[in-house]
Amino acid sequence: MYHNTMRIDFIVFVLIGIICGGVSGAPIIATTEDGKKVLLKEDGSWKFATQSDIVAVKLMKPASSEEQKTDTQGDEPNSPRIQMKSHSSDEPDRAGFLDVVKGDKTFDIRKAMWGMEKAEVKRSETLQLIKETQNSLEYKFKLIGLDSKIVYKFSPDKSGKTRLNGSQYVIEQDDVNPAKFYEDYKSLRSYLRGLYGFPVSDENTWTNEMYKADEKNWGFAISLGFLTCHAAWKNARTRITLNISGSNHILSTNIEYFGGLQ
């Protein structure tokens, strides 16, 4: 009897959630009668929602005009990234940047701080190490569904100790369609805007304007070297840049973190 009742209740709140969420197919968050949060996925499946799921769904929604008014300078807005705590070890990295930002205002990049020595960064990181050089550490990463790697960058200080001063996410797309690369770039830009607010710069640079009037071909234009796209954000200690460029039908997308800004 208990199971049947819970099944009926669940069907009711799923139907309500679908009606409220519209027909866009985007994932939505629904609430059971006993207050539990559930993530309703695009394919019709569901699971109990984590805090990361709730934040990620909120970030998918376009910013309201009121929100835009309060965050026009690119400063760090009052957003879930400040309230979020670090993920537990058994939570996947599907939320991407929620692990990148300083959830408790202690860290600069994931669980590291600018100025850390390499050994300290290695102790802080739980991802799979794939390469180590004198001035870098590379780890395998999944960023909002995209295969990528995170590269920690080090340089010697005045005492000769090698310290963390930057990081880079390199998107490792395996796709022959340049339009897909450009769509991924726009997804990353939207996600970064949700985390950091309006960019301090957002530029498209054309060397050949053949496809400028047709955005559907911008990915192809990038692959030819006709177009590069760049956006940047900044806070007190870090500058973040998102870039996509190409040449000879090879495209490159990355996000760079420059540390130690004053």
Q: What does this protein structure show overall?
A:
The protein is of the alpha+beta class and 262 residues long. It has two domains: 68 residues, no CATH class; 183 residues, no CATH class. Helices cover 27% and strands 30% of the residues. It contains seven helices and eleven strands. The strands form two sheets. The protein has an eight-stranded antiparallel sheet with strand order 4-5-6-7-11-10-9-8. It has a three-stranded antiparallel sheet with strand order 1-2-3, sandwiched between helices. A hairpin with a 2-residue loop joins strand 4 and strand 5. The N terminus is likely disordered.
**Ends apart, CA distance between termini:** 63 Å
- Report the sheet-strand fraction: 25-35%
The number of distinct structural domains comes to: 2
Number of helices: 7
Helix content: 25-40%
Rounded radius of gyration (Å): 21 Å
